[in-house]
């Protein structure tokens, strides 16, 4: 086994490196707004899927329960989200506050710009292949 060559071609290590780089880059872009990429995704999911239980939001933004709870707690402390009980059983719901709604209005163009910059230099075929592979690897 030629370890250096094998490691440089390792799908796992390259995926982790790409994910860390992308997350670090886009977290830095959102830092002036006081949120992370995960928190942005959560704000958007709450807005665009109103009345959806918290558990469903976690699946939508690909967060485990602990990360979801931590991020919701932070967003709630910042006054961006409010939690409420659902009408059925133990269901928990979230909604954006006025402040959260206004922040998301400011964040969406930032997200569009970041997404556009990331796609620069990629063909439509490259994008489709990347998304197909990323979704394949994200399946459990």
UniProtKB/TrEMBL annotation:
Gene3D superfamilies: Winged helix-like DNA-binding domain superfamily/Winged helix DNA-binding domain (1.10.10.10). Residues 1-139 form the HTH marR-type domain. InterPro entries: HTH_MarR-typ, WH-like_DNA-bd_sf, WH_DNA-bd_sf. GO terms for molecular function: DNA binding; DNA-binding transcription factor activity. It comes from the Bacteria. Keywords: DNA-binding, Transcription, Transcription regulation. It holds the Pfam family MarR_2. SUPFAM superfamilies: Winged helix' DNA-binding domain. This is DNA-binding transcriptional regulator, MarR family. It comes from Enhydrobacter aerosaccus.
């Amino acid at each position: 086994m030629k370890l250096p060559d094998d490691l440089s071609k390792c799908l796992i290590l390259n995926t982790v490196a790409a994910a860390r780089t992308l997350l670090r880059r886009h977290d830095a872009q959102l830092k002036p707004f006081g949120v992370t990429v995960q928190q942005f995704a959560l704000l958007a999911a709450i807005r665009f899927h109103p009345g959806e239980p918290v558990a469903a939001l976690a699946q939508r933004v690909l967060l485990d329960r602990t990360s979801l709870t931590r991020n919701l707690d932070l967003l709630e402390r910042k006054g961006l989200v409010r939690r409420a009980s659902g009408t059925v059983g133990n269901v928990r719901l979230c909604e954006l506050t006025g402040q959260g709604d206004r922040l998301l209005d400011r964040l969406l163009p930032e997200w569009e710009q970041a997404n556009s910059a990331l796609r620069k230099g990629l063909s439509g075929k490259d994008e489709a292949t990347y998304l197909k592979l990323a979704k394949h690897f994200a399946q459990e």
